[in-house]
Design brief:
Elements (H helix, E strand, L loop, with lengths): L8 H15 L24
Length: 47
């Protein structure tokens, strides 16, 4: 997920998928965290 596109059609699809899984009786846990882009902090990434 990206921080800039909250509430788009992809988010509703993910929510629907989680609801379907939960309806089977499984428990759902979501770990949501925000990270930063290394280049925004002066870190050079080379692969």
């Amino acid at each position: 997920m990206q921080d800039r596109y909250a509430g788009d059609v992809g988010d509703f699809g993910k929510l629907g998928m989680l609801r379907k899984i939960e309806n089977t009786g499984l428990k759902i846990g979501v770990n949501w965290y925000l990270t930063y882009k290394p280049e925004e902090h002066g870190i050079v990434v080379r692969l």
